Amino acid sequence: MAVTPEIEPWDALLARGRADERLVHESIVPPRAGRSVPVPSALHHELRAALDRVGVAGLHTHQEEALMAAMDGPLIVTTGTASGKSLCFNLPTLQQLLVDPRARALYLYPTKALAQDQARALAALKLARVRPAIYDGDTPQPERRAIRARANIVLTNPDMLHVGILPNHRAWGDFLANLAVVVVDEAHVYRGVFGSHVANVLRRLRRIAAAYGTEPRFLLASATVANPLELAQRLTGLDEIALIDQDGAPAAERQIAMWNPPMLDEAIGARASALSEAADVFADLVAAGARTICFIKSRKAVELILKHAKARLESGGHGDLADRVAPYRAGYTAQQRRELEARLTRGELRGIVSTDALELGIDIGELDAAICVTFPGTVASLRQMWGRAGRRGRGLAVYIAGEDALDQFFCRHPDEFLERPVEAAILDHESEQIHAAHLLCAAHEGPLAAGDAEVLGPNWREHAERLESAGLLIQRRGKFQLRAPEDFPAGRVPLRSSSLDVFALIDTTSGEMIGTMEAARAFSTAHDGAIYLHLGRAYEVEQLDLVDRRALLRPFDGDWFTQPRRETTTAIERLIERRETMGVQLSFGTVIVTDIVTGYQRKSLADHETISFHALDMPETSFTTQALWYELEDPVLGPDAFSERLLGALHATEHAQIAVLPLLAMCDRWDIGGLSTNAHQQTGRPTIFIYDGHPGGVGITRQGYRGFERLVGDAHRLIAECTCKHGCPSCVQSPKCGNLNEPLSKGGAKALLGRLLTG
Questions:
Q1: Element containing residue 604 per DSSP (H, E)
Q2: For residues 556 and 80, what is the distance between their CA atoms, to the nearest angstrom?
Q3: Which of 228, 486, 641, 717 allows an S-S link to 78, with CB 3.0 to 4.6 Å?
Q4: How would you classify the pairing of strands 23-29 and 254-259?
């Protein structure tokens, strides 16, 4: 008797995609059987009973391995989405609290929602002697003293640890004197500038804990990254850390579909809107009965996709389903977000459109399909999002490409994309500006002394002496302390920025400060007249106030965006490494980047056509950062060596390499800057610079230096395979170019990169 193949709710959608050639790739990730072991009898009897109450009859092998390893010292667990990483740190922590009534634990989460989710999971165990409590900016003041005194698991975030707990450690004396475990969940989030700050905060925590006589075990959990041990070591400053990376959890079969919107104009590389395509795919899946989540970066895009999807459902005779889809993004109250999560878990919602707020490990129940709209920045993030599909059955994972260079690169190389190793998480806790800022915070918490080198790093004294010369620290009896004891440096150090010089972003309609921005970026992105996107919402800048260091914004819903014109120069400050490769002299070191914004264009959202140009009178800014640069000789330049096309070839090459650098490091192209010149004042030759876009640098371009040969190869393929004639957003045009994408020579760049590849 023939077996009828199972019909999935997405079969009709995929058939339509094949017919109109939108579906550029399909593949199947086979299911994986889990490997389990009994709950260890050595666990405390109350903990075994609690696991039984919540239906945990056995452990995955990696959970048992983590439990055993955590008894001996610090560890990092890096396994797939929905693999039960929380038990990997909860079991050893709860065991410790049950056998030692005085023990305390600190859980760190990058978002408040994750802390709330974990608090619910701990409460569900109903362990009478375990007293979890959330301590963050939303915690009412009257409750804080009781939490410090009573809770034996405190769930918080790095920002609160930095500004609320460590500077006030005397109020936390009993907690710190009994601190046995520190959990760092979603560790892969701590990369770049944020990670470099958090690495300093964790070192300050170790230092203060030691002052109270404790040395807590650090238990980290992360999504898959290329360098989990290095990430854990750089975050904590500890050398001996166990790695648990053999996933013993079962995994559902997952169907992968890569979807490319159709080409509208091949000559200029224009494609149909990715948002419109996403709305159609989302609506079709919901209508077919698939419980679906759709991820997109910006809040505005979340609302647009939802609006179009509801209209499609209503016009297609599914008006009843239009009320069963919802958005999820920042900007809602905590109560609104909890209600959305509960409705999704209960199955009341058939679909949700979300920013990356739901990418992390919040439990939102069973979903059939996960859509990712445009490349989220890293392969690791994409896999996290896709991991939401088929968590307890078969699933569909869809990637809808945009016109950006990386999106189109992946559509041309789907197999390589899907098999590409996840990126390395990059951070540098000794990035000078970040490290110096935290030394001031540490000095506020207690005088800096010779023994601090073990925790703060070997270069702390050199940085402290510079702070002493600047009049911020004073040395007494061999120890450094704040010159002004009443100062509160932690209040001036935002963990999401590498600069202490920041502008406040003020919404003039409400008077509310909605965020901050580094001064180095403010002049180019928040100048007078700029259209500025904050958490996906568009604002027009009324005034950039240079005296009070604030940008005054008003909500904007017009049909244009702005692009600044900048004049940038680089000066090589210090050479750190140099090597000969591919016929060029390649260098890595520090450079001084000097920028002046001379004006901006208004451009149409519909077709990116220039509407008008506006001149600006702005001050010059400079910052020191890390960079790679390479000098080109005439044999490599070929026939372009003395032609007018040379500058366009160099400029397009720079853009292409910046576009593909995120494939080597966990970063966004907005974290990277570049400059190309046919005669640099120091090298005397045609030179291309690629630099970290944050003051001080955090190691992004060091990855580019180490993987330069791959950077060249990826950039060449990006250009060579694009079908446009003269360059487009899918290859050499950049949305952040300070020269407004002029001049660019796609053909010159293709030839130049080709000659580099032949050495």
A1: strand 584-604
A2: 40
A3: 228
A4: antiparallel
Contact 104, 183 (CB under 8 A): no
pLDDT, tens digit (0-9, with 9 covering 90-100), for 181-219: 999 999 988 988 889 999 999 999 999 999 999 999 999
Phi, psi of 101 (to 5 degrees): -60, -20
Asked whether 455 and 203 are in contact (CB, 8 A), the reply is yes
d(CA 624, CA 68): 46
Copy the structure tokens of residue 36: 């389990």
Whether residue 584 has pLDDT greater than 90: yes
Q: What DSSP string runs through 23-38? A: EEEEEEE--B---EEE
* Residue 411, phi then psi, degrees to nearest 5: -65, -30
What is the model's pLDDT at position 585?
Answer: 95
Name the residue with higher pLDDT: 254 or 169: 169
Beta strands in 454-559 (DSSP E): 473-476, 479-482, 502-507, 512-518, 531-534, 537-545, 550-555
Tens-place pLDDT, residues 673-715: 999 999 899 999 999 999 998 888 888 999 999 999 999 999 9
The residues facing 600 across adjacent strands are: 564, 614
Q: Is the pLDDT of residue 137 over 50?
A: yes
Could you tell me which residue, 723 or 605, shows the higher pLDDT? Answer: 723
Cα 682 to Cα 229: distance, rounded to the nearest angstrom? 39
> Does pLDDT of 153 surpass 80?
yes
Q: Dihedral angle at the C-alpha atoms of 522, 527, 530, 532, nearest 10 degrees?
A: 20
Q: Computed over its alpha carbons, how large is the radius of gyration of the chain?
A: 27
**Angle at the Cα of 201 (from 535 to 186), degrees rounded to 5?**
55
pLDDT tens digit sequence for 375-412: 887 787 888 888 777 755 788 999 999 888 888 888 98
Three-state secondary structure call for residue 603: strand
Peptide bond into 743 cis (omega under 30): yes
- Tell me how far apart the terminal alpha carbons of the chain are, to the nearest angstrom: 62
* DSSP secondary structure code for residue 130 in this structure: -
Q: How many residues does the chain have?
A: 759
Residue type, 617: D
Share of the chain above pLDDT 70, in %: 94
Name beta bridge partners: 182.
106, 218
| pLDDT score, position 575 | 96
- For 638, the token pair is 């070929």
Helices 192-211 & 228-236, crossing angle to 10 degrees? 50
CA distances from 394 to 289, 390, 449, 456, 529 (A): 14, 5, 58, 48, 50
Top-confidence residue, 514 or 357: 514
Q: Which helix (H) or strand (E) holds 672?
A: strand 672-677
CA separation, residue 73 to residues 67, 70, 243, 505, 757 (Å): 10, 5, 11, 43, 47
Distance of alpha carbon 501 from alpha carbon 515, whole angstroms: 14
Mean pLDDT is highest, among 32-41, 266-275, 365-374, 734-743, for 32-41
Return the higher-pLDDT residue of 425 and 274.
274
Please identify which residue in the block is written with the tokens 């026939």.
Answer: 639
Q: 3-state DSSP call for residue 735?
A: coil
Contact 105, 90 (CB under 8 A): no
Quick one: pLDDT at residue 52? Answer: 94
Phi, psi of 120 (to 5 degrees): -65, -40
Tell which phi-psi region holds residue 365, choosing left (phi > 0), alpha (psi between -120 and 50) or beta.
Answer: left
Backbone angles phi, psi at 544, to 5 degrees: -100, 105
Looking at the DSSP assignment, which residues form a beta bridge with residue 9?
none
The rounded distance, in Å, linking the Cα atoms of 232 and 230 is 5
30-to-11, 27, 245, 253 alpha-carbon distances in Å:
18, 10, 20, 5
Burial 735-745 (b: 16+ CB within 10 A, else e): ebbbbbbeebb
